[in-house]
User: Which sequence fits this backbone?
């Protein structure tokens, strides 16, 4: 089938437009955190004021200000004056307990909302780029590294927006998710750019659709999980310093370390079965294309290594002493294996999976 | 197991809560197997072996073995592997003789068949069995045990709600039990307690542990199925020029490998003839020359005497018959070459498969003509489908299809060295006992006359050949089923929420019943707060809430 060059060009324009709008969103999220920062500084000037109802050890601003990020409907406790004893770091807002919270600059919130709107717009442009690329080539638009990057970045934004749509309090992630998205797209349009073309025969299979789609979505989810893990580590180091001593900064606007840790775990637990499925689908494809379902090709080997490391992460979470930091570092090692597989194995290591399309 | 809620009991809810507060493990069955047990003081063999077994089956050991497994796989991806590409292994050893020898001795060129790699995964799976079997027993027992009674002080639990309703205790208990039952939790109603109160206890999410056990057992099943495939399966490769064919028998294959339990006479008796091979390449643009389609049209005779059926074998579309799969795994050119002696008698004639060396199908091949007098002839040849004489690199192919096919020959005479009985490759010419007589360059239809009275070599034409891989792997389907089982188990294990919920209704006089609702997460991501809020909402909708609580 012939390539539709006009549509391919439209796809390229859409990618650049999406990158422009993402940049706007990025700035908006950064501004939101910066505004919040000046607010925190004002609050920090009047310590003691910011105490949530009763619980002495939770006077740290991060708990209070986490409210901004975790703006979940705070139906705290039972309906008729019920109490909800939250011993573990609270994730909900102690509504009505700290009235100062509501004086949080509405501007920051507004800027944050603008960030979300821009993200949605950029996502639509981005999705349009993927769609037109697919239409131009007459196939699923993930057949070389340029296309993987573009689709993978779309998956990252998609995961972030899906969490927002599900009502999860994840707006705080905006800056840290859109940053990597811009980086991935930047790499795509500069280093990895490949013209729209048809596929080599080995890639023509329904299992390409299934396997690569699952792998790309998994990589999007792993990326978000990695971001949460990094934020958790930063936050947790911050929380070690007494609240009164440490200088306030934007990290205070993020959820507590415990909440970030839990969010990261959920993300990883969610993606692990999908990654498992991606590997199985890949094995089915390999069996059809090469006559064996598993051959320890470098790409397969690294997919296996990633799988084993994340299985280790899940185990570590279930083992005393390996929660928290140690488990987090394992998750980061896992992400490192994904990056290695994607960047190093795809481009530099000889194997059957040589479809990078980068010359 | 079904203990009361005494603080000393391990399975009891109160101790669970304490364990949780201390940041410990929720799963009591796993908690008993944490690592770090002290060495036994007396090292009698029996105790020692029990201690060793406990160490092996501890979570920490499993974790270490998992990481070892990941680490051990790394060299297998960075170094060339014999089973994947023996040529690159040989190159590596040639380039780095000392290092190559060391690596070779360590098994680093065959990582996934090396004893140390096997040792890691066998230990891991032993650990897995030792870990999972007791858990199956514990879980089976837990499935038969009713939920534990409510602890005395529900407000000590991590999530706790309390409010007042108008209905009497009995009705509250009934509504509560129904609501919890509707969440597919196992419900137990407690007896009347002293202070005119009653509790309901519910536990849900047993499927989590079931799924986890299923997942680990399925991993074991994958291992067994892969092993079975290796033991009872076979794999063969054959190169077939267009117009030729092969029968499914060991002697007809270029290479054949099988497990130890193969009955070679049991191969299905089919024959396959390659009628045509269609190959298309990208003709323009950035990816010019990239392959776009490979399709082999074959004639299949399932059994001797049966009619020939027309079939298509393509990349991603193998042919399957009685469990044996035929894959198209490669293709190449087989120049048709005829060698004549000085008198014009044909000493050799036929298509000679050449091995492609690059993506533009620069191919190399060898012709050996032993039955020629006065001396044996050997031809070492380079075939270029689209030839270009590059001033720097010499003759190369610049496009994989047949645009300007040329054959470059080096003709040797002397001793081919094939009578010595030593096995020699059909793709390599041993020129140590031969002398180069002439070089030549032929287009299709041309003939090169050799010096002396050695005769002539003609390049009659070109046929494509297909590379077929024929494989029988009885482990294939079991592996797939086991993998699907593993995924199902994993989904249950990660998404089912194991939790306990208790409700206590206490009468505070007529028209005033205090409802307490509390829960305990017994697994990660239990979303217990959300669920308890939901239950509270449900109950409040069904009961009449009294606002003015003291
Ligand atoms: C082939 C090696 C193994 C792999 C790939 C593997 C993988 C996994 C995975 C992915 C989970 C996460 C599911 C979950 O969190 O519920 C898990 C959980 C678990 N595994 Fe393994 N496992 C292996 C071997 C073992 C061994 C040897 C043991 C025992 C020593 C073990 C004990 C457990 C336990 C107790 C859990 C439940 C953790 C929890 O409470 O969530 N596993 N395993």
Assistant:
């Amino acid at each position: 089938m012939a390539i539709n060059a006009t549509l391919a060009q439209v796809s390229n324009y859409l990618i650049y437009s999406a990158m422009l709008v993402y940049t706007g969103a990025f700035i908006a999220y950064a501004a939101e955190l910066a505004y919040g920062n000046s607010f925190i500084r004002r609050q920090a000037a009047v310590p003691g004021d910011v105490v949530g109802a009763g619980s002495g050890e939770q006077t740290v601003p991060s708990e209070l200000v986490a409210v901004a990020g975790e703006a979940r409907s705070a139906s705290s406790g039972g309906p008729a004056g019920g109490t909800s004893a939250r011993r573990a770091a609270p994730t909900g807002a102690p509504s009505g307990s700290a009235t100062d919270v509501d004086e949080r600059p509405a501007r920051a919130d507004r800027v944050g909302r603008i960030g979300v709107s821009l993200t949605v717009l950029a996502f639509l442009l981005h999705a349009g780029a993927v769609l037109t690329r697919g239409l131009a080539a007459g196939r699923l638009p993930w057949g070389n590294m340029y296309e993987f990057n573009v689709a993978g970045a779309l998956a990252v934004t998609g995961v972030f927006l899906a969490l927002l749509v599900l009502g999860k309090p994840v707006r705080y992630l905006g800056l840290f998710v859109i940053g990597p998205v811009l980086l991935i797209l930047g790499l795509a349009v500069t280093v990895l750019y490949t013209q729209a073309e048809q596929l080599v025969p080995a890639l023509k299979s329904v299992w390409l659709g299934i396997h690569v789609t699952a792998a790309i979505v998994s990589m999007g989810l792993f990326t978000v999980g990695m971001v949460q893990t990094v934020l958790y580590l930063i936050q947790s180091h911050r929380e070690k310093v007494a609240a009164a001593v440490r200088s306030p900064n934007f990290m205070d606007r993020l959820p507590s370390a415990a909440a970030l840790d839990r969010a990261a775990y959920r993300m990883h637990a969610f993606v692990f079965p999908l990654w498992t499925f991606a590997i199985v689908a890949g094995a089915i494809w390999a069996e059809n294309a090469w006559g064996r379902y598993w051959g320890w090709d470098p790409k397969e080997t690294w997919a296996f290594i990633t799988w084993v490391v994340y299985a280790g992460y899940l185990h570590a979470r279930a083992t005393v002493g390996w929660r928290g930091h140690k488990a987090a570092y394992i998750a980061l090692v896992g992400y490192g294996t994904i990056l290695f597989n994607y960047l190093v194995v795809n481009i530099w290591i000889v194997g059957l999976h040589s479809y990078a399309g980068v010359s | 197991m079904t203990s009361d809620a005494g603080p000393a009991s391990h399975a009891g809810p109160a101790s669970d809560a304490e364990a949780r507060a201390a940041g410990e493990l929720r799963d009591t069955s796993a908690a008993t197997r944490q690592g770090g047990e002290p060495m036994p003081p007396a090292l009698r063999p029996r105790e020692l072996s029990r201690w060793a077994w406990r160490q092996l089956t501890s979570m920490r050991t499993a974790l270490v073995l998992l990481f070892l497994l990941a680490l051990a796989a790394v060299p297998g991806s960075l170094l060339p592997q014999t089973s994947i590409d023996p040529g690159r292994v040989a190159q590596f050893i040639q380039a780095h003789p000392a290092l190559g020898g060391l690596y070779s001795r360590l098994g680093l060129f065959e990582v996934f068949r090396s004893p140390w790699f096997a040792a890691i995964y066998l230990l891991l799976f032993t650990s897995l069995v030792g870990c999972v079997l007791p858990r199956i027993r514990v879980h089976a027992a837990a499935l038969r045990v009713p939920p534990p009674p409510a602890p005395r002080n529900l407000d000590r639990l991590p999530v706790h709600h309390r409010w007042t309703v108008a209905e009497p205790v009995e009705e509250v208990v009934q509504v509560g039990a129904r609501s919890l039952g509707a969440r597919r939790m196992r419900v137990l109603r407690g007896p009347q307690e002293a202070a005119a109160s009653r509790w309901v206890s519910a536990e849900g999410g047993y499927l989590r542990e079931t799924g986890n056990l299923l997942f680990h057992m399925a991993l074991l099943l994958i291992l067994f199925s892969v092993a079975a495939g290796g033991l009872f399966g076979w794999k063969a490769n054959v190169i077939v020029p267009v117009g030729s064919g092969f029968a499914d028998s060991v002697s007809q294959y270029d290479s054949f490998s099988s497990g130890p339990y193969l009955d070679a006479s049991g191969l299905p008796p089919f024959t396959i003839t390659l009628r045509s091979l269609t190959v298309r390449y990208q003709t323009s643009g950035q990816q010019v020359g990239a392959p776009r389609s490979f399709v082999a049209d074959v004639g299949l005779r399932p059994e001797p005497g049966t009619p020939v059926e027309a079939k298509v074998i393509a990349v991603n579309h193998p042919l399957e018959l009685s469990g044996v799969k035929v894959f198209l795994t490669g293709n190449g050119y087989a120049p048709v070459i005829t060698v004549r002696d000085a008198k014009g008698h044909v000493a050799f004639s036929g298509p000679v498969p050449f091995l492609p060396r690059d993506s533009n199908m620069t191919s190399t091949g060898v012709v050996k003509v032993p039955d020629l007098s006065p001396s044996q002839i050997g031809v070492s040849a380079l075939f270029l489908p689209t030839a270009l004489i590059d001033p720097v690199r010499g003759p190369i192919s610049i496009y994989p299809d047949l645009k300007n096919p040329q054959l470059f020959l080096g003709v040797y005479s002397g001793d081919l060295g094939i009578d010595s009985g030593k096995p020699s490759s059909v793709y390599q010419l041993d020129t140590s006992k031969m002398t180069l007589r002439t070089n030549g360059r032929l287009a299709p239809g041309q003939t090169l006359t050799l010096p002396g009275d050695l005769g002539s070599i003609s390049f009659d034409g070109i046929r494509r050949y297909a590379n077929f891989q024929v494989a029988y792997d009885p482990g294939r389907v079991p592996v797939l089923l086991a993998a699907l089982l593993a995924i199902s188990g994993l989904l249950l294990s990660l998404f089912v929420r194991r939790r306990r919920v208790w409700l206590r209704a206490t009468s505070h006089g007529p028209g005033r019943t205090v409802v307490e609702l509390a829960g305990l997460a017994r697994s990660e991501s239990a979303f217990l707060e959300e669920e308890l809020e939901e239950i509270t909402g449900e109950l409040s909708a069904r009961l009449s809430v009294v606002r003015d609580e003291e």
Summary: The pocket of protoporphyrin IX containing FE is lined by residues A 311, 314-315, 318; B 27, 30, 57, 59, 62, 66, 124, 127-128, 131, 212, 216, 219, 493-494 (CB under 6 Å). Chain A has one domain: 5-23+112-348. The first helix of chain A runs from residue 5 to 44.
